[in-house]
Design a protein that fits this description.
Elements: E1 2-5, E2 11-15, E3 18-21, E4 24-27, H1 32-39, E5 47-53, E6 58-64, E7 72-78, E8 80-87, E9 98-104, E10 110-113, E11 117-123, E12 128-134, E13 143-145, H2 173-176, H3 181-186
Antiparallel strand pairs: 1-2, 2-10, 3-4, 5-12, 6-11, 6-13, 7-10, 7-12, 8-9, 8-11
Amino acid sequence: MDYRELKVPGAWEITPRQFSDDRGLFLEWFKEPGFSDATGRTLDLQQANCSVSAAGVLRGVHFADASPGQAKYVTCVNGAVLDVVVDLQVGSPTFGQWDSILLDDIDRRASFISEGLGHAFLSLEDGSTVVYMCSTGYNPEREHEVSPLDPEIGIDWPTVGRDGTPLQWKLSDKDLAAPTLRQALDSGLLPQNEEGVH
């Protein structure tokens, strides 16, 4: 596997080696020894999720309260999504910055998002299936969101799908009502940057 840290510290792109023949293919989409060597940490798995989305579905930017927060290891097993990480940690030198990875069923990359970072993705075709492992379980009282359409963050969301057809973004009511980064900051909702957390 190849590991590349994104411009948001604590977020990684993981590209697996794929082994294929006339029967299909095989890959290891997560392997602890290589992961801990590259990132300097382990992933304590507490929950695994699967999300299936129509083309244009935009989910996020989601994050959990710090201490313990929630780290995610994410891949797309069918279809394609633009996977986005946003630094939401107050006091971080990269606060408000974002980076993205194309996760799809061709390159089969994965992303790792540390605690304190926001996560979002946009489905680029019908039936895009995202699976992700989480370091903590879902707790609705500790889960929050920031608007993925906030111009201050300025995420460059695609307007066409993987096949070139126009996308009509579809967001949940919760994500449509999400505060902007500035509103979340002013309300004290965002996590604090803690040195050495990544």
